[in-house]
């Protein structure tokens, strides 16, 4: 990095407010710290929720972005290897694990739930406010200052638009694990956004024999098929839930061993329940925020059918393992994973991207699958 180079970051000034691109000095990383030149940072539903002020722990102005891929720009003393022990040098591409826990306490070591660590510090992309040091602690910026010594990162040779899928895939892996998908399982993936598409990949990797993806629009369904779905059911062409259920049952010869719900409304949860075979599992990922309630009959909907309902909150409190696994799965190749990021947006358009994610899911005349901020654009 040159002496005169400066960093730029897209700062959300207030709840659903203006996003300003601000300038910063490049920090010199201390022992155990590093500086990353961000290549791409995925934008996900959580960013849209924070932007709308729905996460009380984040204060404004805020620098968001936690799906961070970039090249090491400067290494503090002692940073010589990634978390898997592979040597690193300036210029290497890495994916950064955003969450920061102590790694020593009862929750971290015994319960294996570092997400519940009492010494947990705000994750990158969640630290706030952004107008106080250490600055540059989120991915919607030209540089990330990994100011917490011991930040977990992994070297990767994957293209940035593939490596940036680490988080959505780790969420999908959580869902597929909780759904108990195994060799020969029949699976319904409900919803074909980024998480749903990654769930298709995860279910295929786990050994599913037959996968039906229910969603839309057509471009996403084509991608679902290319990623491993055997059949797709288009919401636009089959708008009636009862007819959709018949289509799914026809495709699978009955209900599914596992349903991965990523659609995200109470009504879609009820529909997903009806797609589970007796004895099967519904893993619900989609209702990530409170969107209301539905009628539920414990006898008819649950006991009599001997089914299991698993609540799957993001990549889980033990997400670190899944982050690493996700990178390994993404590295297998052979799939059009580079087509998931549908829109690469410059810092100056971060607000438009946040608005699109929270609303119409359409930008520049095309449907959004996955948005990412490209600070080099
Ligand atoms: Zn995310
Ligand atoms: Zn801990």
From TrEMBL:
Domain (Enoyl reductase (ER)): residue spans on this chain: 17-373
Keyword Cytoplasm appears in the UniProt entry: no
Keywords assigned: Metal-binding, Oxidoreductase, Zinc
A GO molecular-function annotation: zinc ion binding
SMART domains the UniProt entry points to: PKS_ER
Needed cofactors: Zn(2+)
Protein's UniProt keywords contain Oxidoreductase: yes
Highest taxon above the source species: Bacteria
Family membership noted in the UniProt record: Belongs to the zinc-containing alcohol dehydrogenase family.
Protein name, UniProt field: Zinc-binding dehydrogenase
Organism: Nonomuraea zeae
């Amino acid at each position: 990095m040159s002496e005169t180079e400066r960093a730029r970051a897209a700062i959300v000034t207030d709840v659903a407010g203006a996003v300003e691109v601000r300038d910063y000095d490049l920090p010199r990383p201390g022992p155990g710290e590093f500086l990353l030149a961000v290549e791409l940072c995925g934008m996900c539903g959580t960013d849209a929720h924070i932007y709308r002020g729905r996460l009380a722990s984040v204060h404004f102005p805020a620098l968001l972005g936690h799906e961070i891929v970039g090249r090491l720009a400067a290494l503090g003393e002692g940073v010589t290897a990634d978390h898997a022990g592979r040597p690193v040098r300036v210029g290497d591409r890495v994916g950064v694990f955003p969450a920061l826990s102590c790694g020593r306490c009862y929750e971290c070591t015994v319960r294996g739930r570092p997400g519940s660590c009492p010494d947990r510090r705000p994750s990158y992309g969640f630290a706030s406010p952004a107008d106080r040091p250490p600055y540059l602690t989120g991915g919607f910026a030209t540089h990330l200052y990994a100011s917490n010594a011991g930040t977990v990162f992994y070297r990767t040779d994957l293209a940035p638009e593939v490596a940036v899928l680490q988080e959505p895939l780790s969420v999908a892996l959580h869902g597929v694990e909780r759904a108990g998908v195994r060799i020969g399982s029949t699976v319904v993936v409900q919803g074909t956004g980024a998480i749903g598409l990654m769930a298709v990949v995860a279910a295929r990797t786990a050994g599913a024999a037959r996968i039906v993806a229910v969603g839309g629009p057509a471009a996403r369904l084509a991608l679902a098929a290319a990623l491993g779905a055997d059949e797709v059911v288009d919401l636009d062409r089959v708008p009636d839930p009862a007819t959709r259920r018949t289509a799914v049952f026809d495709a699978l010869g009955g209900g599914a061993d596992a349903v991965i719900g990523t659609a995200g409304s109470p009504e879609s949860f009820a529909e997903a329940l009806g797609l589970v075979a007796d004895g099967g599992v519904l893993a619900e990922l989609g209702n990530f925020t409170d969107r209301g309630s539905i009628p539920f009959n414990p006898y008819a909907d649950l006991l009599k059918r001997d089914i299991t309902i698993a609540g799957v909150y993001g990549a889980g409190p033990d997400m670190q393992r899944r982050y690493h696994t996700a990178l390994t799965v993404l590295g297998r190749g052979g799939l059009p994973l580079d087509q998931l990021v549908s829109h690469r947006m410059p810092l100056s358009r971060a607000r438009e991207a946040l608005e699109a994610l929270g609303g119409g899911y359409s930008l520049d005349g095309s449907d959004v699958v996955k948005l990412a901020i490209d600070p080099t654009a």
